[in-house]
Amino acid sequence: MKNKFFILFILLGMFLPSVSAQPLETGVEKQEFLKSNRIIDSNTNLPVANAQIMIPQTNYKTYSDKNGYFTLRTNMNSDTIISVSKDGYRPFTTTFLKDTSSPLKLSLQKQKLDDISIECDMCHLGDDTFSMNSANSGDFKIKASGPFYSKTFKISDEAKNRENYLVIGSIIGIDTSLARKMGQNHANSYATAPEIYFNGVKIAEIQLNGDNQRIKIPNDLIRENSENEVTIKTGHNILQSDHLDYDDIEFMNLSLQSE
Q1: In 3D, which of 149, 147, 177, 137 has the Cα closest to residue 246?
Q2: pLDDT tens, 26-51?
């Protein structure tokens, strides 16, 4: 009889779940966790906790956890602008591509004392008349404020001792010939490029949609300890002859950064 119980005990041990199986479950959870989106410090590679992640088009917000991880629990059926902000860091904007399957790894740079945040909100330039084949037209969520944007701000007297850049976090909707050649839009016509002015002088044209575009500001244009003005003018449809048809674009996170 004792031998029978011993054999039964061995058989039960073969088929009943073992406590030692628990680490396997933990391993699976860790693997899934490592596939999450993450925010890190660009200098230290350490996680950035409690950073705000926002999708301006839908006002969706979430925050990174203590290890810098975050999940976007919202539908993104098209290319979507994502904005990240955290005290002590430069605002960061990126365009999440709808076909992206890999997780996002976003690096934030420490804010410098002379950084100037010019505009944090989403801005829409144009006339609210655009084709659905226009670049990112399906992402437009706010009304146009007109064909140009202008803002004044002060710059310190030390600015001319450094290199200064106007940084556009993200810009979409550009329908230039080059943007069409790059596959960013499928419109039948094309538009002139948006123009960037600093204190009334044109310093750049933007030919392509993209993130964190940096435009160097000539130091001789800077007015130290005085009001300086940046202006962004949207382009217009080249093939439209009977009226002026402005190209609708949106941009976010406009700042001045010194190096």
Answers
A1: 147
A2: 223 333 333 589 999 999 999 999 99
